[in-house]
Amino acid sequence: MTVNYSALSSTAETLLTNFGQTVTFTRFARGTYVAASGMNSASSSTYTAKVVLFDQVKNEDGETTNQITEFPASMHSTTEPLVGDTATINGKSYRINEVQPVQPGTSVIYYELRLRS
């Protein structure tokens, strides 16, 4: 039996587009070494994706009393998200802490993320 993964991907994209919000992600890169300054030049790139945020989870850091807010999220994007990318949602910045592609075979249907403030 053959499964049509492109149809599943299309359905996921439709649902995330209809019920999600557009989020801008920023990816920072170290860049190249600049001999004159003795440092690496930093660069960044951005991409957008449709994201559905789920209920937030609040934890305390084990060593301190700092409160950590995490959002499980689902995302559809043509750009693969990476741990360390930052998402700007409602003016607040969140770091991608975990990425799990939902990927039967070689076709990515959507990505499950854990965003942390």
What does it look like?
The chain is mostly beta strands and 117 residues long. The protein is globular and about 55 Å long. The longest helix has 15 residues. It has one helix and nine strands, in the order H-E-E-E-E-E-E-E-E-E. The model has no long low-confidence stretch (mean pLDDT 85). The strands form two sheets. A six-stranded antiparallel barrel has the order 1-4-6-9-8-7. Strands 2-3 form a two-stranded antiparallel ribbon. The chain is 13% helix and 51% strand. Strand 7 and strand 8 form a beta hairpin.
Spell out the key features of this protein.
single chain; 117 residues; mainly beta; six-stranded antiparallel barrel; two-stranded antiparallel sheet; 1 helix; 9 strands; globular
Question: Which stretches of 5+ consecutive residues score pLDDT under 50?
Answer: none
N- to C-terminal distance: 43 Å
Radius of gyration over C-alpha positions, nearest whole angstrom: 17 Å
Strand order of the largest sheet: 1-4-6-9-8-7
Strand content bin: over 45%
Global outline: globular
Helical stretch count?
1
What is the total tally of β strands? 9
Q: Structural class of the secondary structure composition?
A: mainly beta
User: What value does the average pLDDT take?
Assistant: 85
- How would you describe the oligomerization state of the chains in this entry? single chain
Assign a percent range to the helix content: 10-25%
What is the succession of H and E elements?
A: HEEEEEEEEE
The main β sheet shows up as: 6 strands, antiparallel, barrel
